[in-house]
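Provenance and format

Records in this collection were gathered into a single text stream. Each protein contributes a sequence line and a token line. The two records reproduced below are adjacent in the stream.
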Amino acid sequence: MAHVPLVPIGVDRNRLLDDRTFEEQRSALAVREDALSKRRAEVYDGWGPRYRERVHQKGKRTARERIEMLQDPGSQPYEVGTFVNHGVQFGDLTSPAAGVVTAFVRVHGRWCMVIANDNTVASGAWWPQTPEKIQRAQSMALRLRVPAIYLVDCSGLYLPEQARSFGGRTGAGHIFLMNSRLSDAGVPQLAGVFGDCIAGGGYMPIISDRVYMTEQAYMVIAGAALVKGAKGQRVTSLDIGGPEVHVHQSGCADARVPNDQMLIASLRNEISRLPSSAAAYYRGDQGATGTAFPRGELGGLVPADHRLPYDADQVVARLCDQGLLWELLSEMGREVLCGVGRFAGLHAGVVINRQGLLDDGGDQERQARVGGILYRDGIAKLSAFSRACADDGLPMIWLQDVSGFDIGAAAEAQGLLGYGSNLIYGHSNHAAPVFTVLLRKASGAGYYAMAGLPYDPVIQLSTTLSRLSVMEGRTLAIAAYHSKLNDAFEIASSDPKERAQVAQGMRQVEEQIESDMNPFRAASQMDTDEIVRFDELRDWLCLLVEMSYQSCGYRRVKNPRIWSLHDLAAIDLAGRLP
């Protein structure tokens, strides 16, 4: 019973695809991923070399340079929210990454959430969506119980746009509510103040457990210019709220250090005092193993054309350790695969939509189902598997390529609405960490059923192939113009002018939906957390699963002898015995 029966599910690539098809699919993906790399570079550049030089002339480092100093040698940061505000203009200005870097960073072997104001973009000011991005990062730290580190160099709200970032439920003040919730939950918070720290920026570090300031840093409710205007007093911001004031008088900071390098070293030292990661304990003797297949294969297995199928089992085989998986409920609801695999030696539940035509066995009405669609048995299977993972404390990975629910008279008679609500109830009350990946299609109610962002996964990733929408553009165009179409979905009118108008309208609807489904559009408006390359996906999943096991004691993580999943497997097997 304690044994987790992991078995190989992968086969060599040349048994799946011929070389020509594989290279064609990989080349089609490469075009999109090259665009991703280019856009990342543009974001990382901030406002460009001129503004980086201005930071360096002050004896300071940029946000990403500080993160590089903070991280363990040989490790890399994993940024989230890279494309927030992407493509959005504020007059003549842009705010790359909304002026703040949020990233998972390994420090002394412990994963931390780092929130760093980009001081090359309007001196680290908060733009529209900056507060939401910071809160999202704080939420990830809270859900995973990983330390939050604030690298503060913030001139406050970007005032010309303050109406879009100050008020409201997710306005700037909500950051301080999240500070308080992290503190109440016992999640470590550390702050380094490197320069400007004005108004709301002054509040962000205060609730942290330890606050360090450099000699040129200050924290003030109002800067010198505002004090002069309001009270006529001629003082500097350092006079008002520099380290001399807050370390030695107010007690709002704990220590002063001469420069950026010493502050980063001090933060690293603070992290070293925390309990180490529990991941090695939960791995036991397994260790952190690699994959059974080359890293670059995954991108050639998934066609860029969302209408073409692929073998979802082989995708999972290239994400799990050594291509091993324990599949559960394998004979029912075959439109979805549910199983347990290891990621860097740690167990996690995995769900993925199968594609193409699927023979589900049984009676006539259950045969030849279309993959990517959720049917009654598949929805029930997802609910049962998700509940068992939550009960056992296993993190869950949802790999989406879903067109939606089955529709029609038979589907309604089977109660798909009720089964779907049962699954949504489970999502809404899931106790273990959940991570969602949009591989390609993320459509309609299927997006919700597969743990989409509205159901609060810790993080949602998208690939460059992802298509997030209620329905595909052509389908929506038909729905919008259904009164003008015949039963074959062709334009019914015989009037050439009317036919041309309907055809043009349908094209415009389809083009608009295609534009809306662009993953960069979703990332810009925070409808997804990050866009990743296919060859980065396994590293991301290993990172997320490891963080799920880093902190111990705050959530239930069962040992495999008492997993509910074993009971589920036994019941399933008993039901299939003659």
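Adjacent record:
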Amino acid sequence: MMNFIRRNFKRISYTALGFVAVITVLSFYELRNIKFDYDFESFFPQDDPDLDKYIDFRNTFEYDNEFILLAIENKSGIFRDEFLNRISVLTDTIRNIPDVSYVQSPITLEYMVVSGLGPLRIPYIHLGETERYKEDSSLIYKTPELVGSFFARDGKSVCFYIKTTEGISKAKSDSLLSRIDREVAAHKFDDTFTASKAKGQKVYLEKLSGEFVQFFIASFLLVVLFLWISFRSFWGIWVPVVIVLLSIVWTLALMTVTGKALDIMTVLLPTMMFVVGMSDVVHIVTKYIEELREGAASKFDALIKAIKEAGFATFITLITTSLGFLTLINSNIIPIRDFGIYTSLGVFIAFVLSYSIMPLVLFLLPKPKIAAVKPESDFWRKQLHKLLRWTLRNRKSVVVGTLIIAGISIFGITRIVLNNHLIEGLTRKDELRQDFEFFEKNYSGVRPFEILITLNDTTSSLWNNEEMRAMDKLESYLRNDFGVGFIISPASLVKGMNKALNNGNPESYVLPAAEDDLENVIDQLEQFRKRKEMKNLITKDGKQARVTGKMADIGSKVFLERAAELDKFLQANPDMKCINVHLTGAALMLDKNNKYLVDNTVQGLLISILVVALISALVHRNLRMMIIAIIPNLLPIIIIGGIMGFTGIEMKSATSIIFSIAFGIATDDTIHFLARLKLEIAQGKSVMYCVKRSFLSTGKAVVVTSLILCGGFLSLIGSGFESTYYFGLLVSITLLVAVVTDLLLFPLLVIWLIKDTKKG
């Protein structure tokens, strides 16, 4: 069989390359359909009962995140006739834009006064009556429900609340934002600030598409640089690069065919593929050159031996690396799950191309001119020999240093904080984040806050005295202790009606003290119960209600702490027992990711460790090999956890996936060392001799691939997303530490744990 392949290898090569060319052309054709997508709701944890409750909640009332906050600043003050007239014109213009359900602006705000003639609506701002602006201003800033909602605390800006069509598509929301931006720009205000889910998705997608190209170019240049340093030949650069590029194109085409768009996670895939896929290629090329240098009879013989020696170890690393990504399938978050699936498929495609197409290409190319290098003049051999000698002479120092670093790192791990923000990962310089901070400083914030109120006694009604007072007490707690503003609830409607019945006096924005008076106010509201704004707060039967508001993007850690305090408040107050309070909303669903982060991270890492241990034991038929395979690669994970704890890098969706991925990739070096060690031991040599041969022959490829991996992941630090920045930085550090621990601990562990088969 081998003779047949040898005789027909050229024909087989051309046929296979033709087949690859066809698939590549089809893949490029399919890439015309590639899309970028960022849907906040895709980060909601799946299979969570609270997600079902949230879906029911918004079906009962309305979407809590389909709105746009637009702040307009006038630095000389807002009560200027020319400024207010422009606000009025802009209000009318925005109201008529498609997909705008309604607009609330300072010009449209009114308060009601109930008199003998019936309800009268009086504007808070009497537009055009400049002599009344001082009186209007005084009334507005005596009305707490307006300040921080529609009027800035410093009196220099006003805010629009623009409700959009529910379930609005990405294309329509982009069009809506563009139209609003054009209309606002036409008025040339001092400054404007916008915050909305629609703008967040637009900004994220623009960054994703830009960084997709940025990461690819950066990783490409870094990989080319390392390949040139390693092989110093043109073919040593373009052959590996072409193979990895093909695997990237095929993987992206597969994503497109299956309808998967590039999101904030999968946009990293080309970079991941470029650096991870290059590992296989480097090991083959390094071994191929080594065989030619040692006098292989032909290119065919050199390739066959390179594949035999490097192939098995690389296949094992394929399993461990793919496993690092596949453990993400356990995640309850769809983008992370998809990232794990498609990246593992991409790694498999890269392996197949490396061990099928690359040998064919190398065979068809002219035999490279490789000068024989004397061992004593070989840079890599000299440096590796020097390092091995130093390690063996300083065994105790290496062990003690390792234990000290591990101990400190374990303490650091206990300091890791779980946290998540609505504006996930954007840097302080980003315009969207600056807009959010403006609303937090001058208004109530942007983060939607939602509570579902239900009854303990299902025969009762939320319109009753006891239940209404409980909701009012809850509203006060939320405003004063939880940090919620812009609050609207059934209780606020009743207080507003009481104010109307008292000639619009701001001090009457309270529930009447007497039960009969409260019932009278509620009866007065009866005529408004068919209005949409009423239906969006309480169901027709009075069995369910909604408390809605806005707050600062305080992060999931602080929010959940405040939620725990809210629960204590409810338990400590007997008069709150008549209602059930259930936190819900889109922002809370994003926060709940943290509930699964630790479990998924630990579970994924344990699976990776278990599989690597089992593979090592089965392949080498020696349980001690498990220890050798695990320790040098578990230590970097412990160290990176310690770094996160001491530097305050928070655990969130993007950083949580580092551990299992980094462990899967880091084990590659150890597996290559062990594979070569097995070949050497099979020849009956002493353990010390086998360690030395394995270390010197495999060390260069291990160091080069580790540098390529580190360099590739470091390209991610140029990201505008903090989460991506930390992902690239931390994985790079992990892999760098991994190669150091391999070089230092591998020889010592083998000498201590492997029984010598030959003495002397």
